[in-house]
Amino acid sequence: MAGQHSAAEEKKHHKHEGPKKHIIAFIFSILLTVIAFAMVAAGEINTSFIYISLVMMALVQVFIQMGFWMHMKDRGHIFPIVGILMGVFVVFTIVIMAEYWAWW
């Protein structure tokens, strides 16, 4: 029976995670969004602290989105990861060079 695979081979090819991790990631994303909104809405918090906190929460949010919703944590996603990193590098280079150009 050439068309049949053993149970070990099936597990090796595809492992279903189930909804538990997705629900946890969704709740964590909503929690980060609510915290960010509350910090900005409060208005009496130091502006520098708010900026730094928002950037840090945005970075955590990006990693949650990439890891759990786009499945970048799984094997076989090296090309999308390299593409995203190259895009980030190009954008940062453009922003830094534009700042440098505008400054002088």
SSE topology sketch:
Elements: H1 7-13, H2 20-42, H3 47-69, H4 78-103
Helix pairs in contact: 2-3
Structural notes for this entry:
The structure is a single chain. The chain is mainly α. It has 2 domains: 1-73, no CATH class; 75-104. The chain contains 4 helices and no strands. It has helices spanning 7-13, 20-42, 47-69, 78-103. Helix 2 packs antiparallel against helix 3.
In brief, what are we looking at here?
This protein is mainly alpha-helical. It is built from 4 helices and no strands. The chain has helices at residues 7-13, 20-42, 47-69, 78-103.
Key descriptive features of the protein:
single chain, 104 residues, mainly alpha, 2 domains, 4 helices, 76% helix, flat, Cyt_c_oxidase_su4_prok
Taking all Cα atoms into account, the compactness measure Rg is 21 Å
Could you tell me the mean pLDDT?
Answer: 82
Largest sheet: none
Tell me the series of helices and strands, N- to C-terminal. HHHH
By secondary-structure content and strand pairing, the structural class works out as mainly alpha
